[in-house]
Design goal:
Number of strands: 10
Shape: globular
CATH class of the largest domain: Alpha Beta
Strand order of the largest sheet: 3-2-1-4-7-6-8-5
Distance between the termini: 51 Å
Number of domains: 2
Number of helices: 13
Order of helices and strands: HEHEHEHEEHEHHEHHEHHHHEE
Mean pLDDT: 92
Helix content: 40-55%
Length: 395
């Protein structure tokens, strides 16, 4: 009798939890900017500017010899109708990054287009990437005449030949101060296939692109691998120095620039990252580097986030597998909704829709990475990238 009463009590708890979770997924399906549709894409054609503006590509690079050659080659082969140059900031690399870059530019016959800046030592209060970007932007703005647009690019990104022209035309036609593309990440290894599409899905859930792209919404985000910025607006907003200690620098930059004008963020298959994450720990380190920073280094927000992820992603599975009656129906419904919402992102990465059923397990992995991010920060080892611990706000 007591066992039966306990089972009935547990089932009631499942039912109480499962219904709000189903309601939450219903809201995510219809009420959060339709983030899951992956509708914000680089498939619109914009009219060409009457005069193509001068453009400078700024690339911060620290020990990027493996990928910088491909990146430079793709940039040097652009069919951009205007004048453009490339500034590479060699951030104290130890692997010959600058030499590889010079050889790549020379092989393309574009050595005059490339400027290599030797990075100065990292000053206190700056993250490494932003310090390198600041030096690169200063070098670019010293050109005569200075560029009207700056493309901030990671060193592991490759571009199709038409993309610089598309970015500038899109930004100019819509008077955008920031135009950013979420680059196509590599998705080859088992760990990448399991975790990378969800990274894009979760990012869109956190920052619905349709809301980012509207002036009347507060949401602001960008993808740091490919960001086209109106140079004068960046200077008027305070420059890179205004966000010099930001670990999630792309979103910090988006917030700063959205206060000045229109920003836009979309998905693309014409810009891709060639950086590989072959193992589970490789992706784990990538996510843990900034997950706690995303929560403002707040233990309260960490607890709230953990609770929310358990309820939203894990409770439906528990209700579907262990519940009964209405609780099980709600759990199955929520599980199916999340699988269906995940499908467009899986399609973008050419993965089977059956991966959608694994989203609770994938979310559990991200939950562990987030907790690890907080632990590493509290130990004074947060924000590790290229040998630097950059999460300086741990209490």
């Amino acid at each position: 009798m007591q066992r039966a009463q306990g089972w009935a009590g547990n089932n009631m708890v499942v039912e109480i939890i499962a219904f709000p979770v189903l309601a939450a997924w219903s809201y995510l399906a219809i009420g959060r900017g339709a983030f899951w549709r992956c509708a914000e894409r680089d498939d619109e054609t914009s009219p060409a500017p009457r005069t193509w503006p001068r453009l400078a590509v700024v690339i911060p690079a620290r020990d990027e010899a493996e990928g910088i050659g491909n990146c430079l080659e793709s940039l040097c082969r652009q069919d951009y109708p205007g004048n453009y140059s490339v500034v590479l900031v060699d951030d104290n690399s130890s692997d010959g990054t600058a030499d590889v870059a010079r050889r790549a530019a020379s092989m393309c016959g574009a050595q005059d287009r490339l400027t290599v800046v030797s990075g100065a030592p990292l000053p206190r209060g700056w993250t490494g990437k932003l310090w390198a970007l600041s030096q690169g932007i200063d070098a670019a703005m010293a050109f005569d005449p200075p560029p009207q647009y700056l493309l901030l690019s990671d060193a592991d990104i490759v571009y199709t030949p038409s993309i610089l022209g598309w970015l500038v035309a899109h930004a100019a036609a819509r008077d955008q101060v920031l135009t950013s593309l979420m680059v196509k990440l590599r998705c080859d290894s088992l760990a990448e296939r399991f975790l990378i599409p969800a990274f894009i899905f979760f990012f869109q859930m956190l920052y619905p692109f349709a809301w980012v792209n509207r002036r009347d919404r507060a949401a602001a985000a960008a993808a740091g691998g490919c960001m086209l910025i109106h140079a004068r607006t960046l200077r008027e907003a305070g420059g890179i120095e205004a966000i010099r200690d930001a670990l999630i620098d792309d979103c910090a930059l988006a917030r700063m620039l959205k206060a000045k004008g229109r920003i836009w963020l979309g998905l693309t298959e014409r810009v891709a990252s060639i950086r590989g994450y072959p193992g589970w720990s490789d992706i784990g380190r990538m996510i843990s580097r900034s997950a706690y920073a995303q929560l403002g280094y707040s233990p309260v927000w960490l607890v709230v986030t953990v609770a929310a992820m358990v309820l939203i992603f894990l409770a439906p599975t528990a209700a579907a597998l262990a519940g009964s009656g209405y609780g099980r129906l709600c759990g199955v419904g929520a599980w199916l909704i999340m699988a269906v919402l995940f499908r467009p992102t899986l399609r973008l990465y050419r993965r089977s829709p059956l991966w959608g059923l694994a989203l609770p397990a994938i979310a559990c992995a991200y939950l562990m990475f987030t907790i690890n991010s907080a632990l590493q920060t509290l130990r004074g080892k947060g924000g590790l990238w290229k040998g630097r611990f950059q999460a300086v706000r741990a209490k």
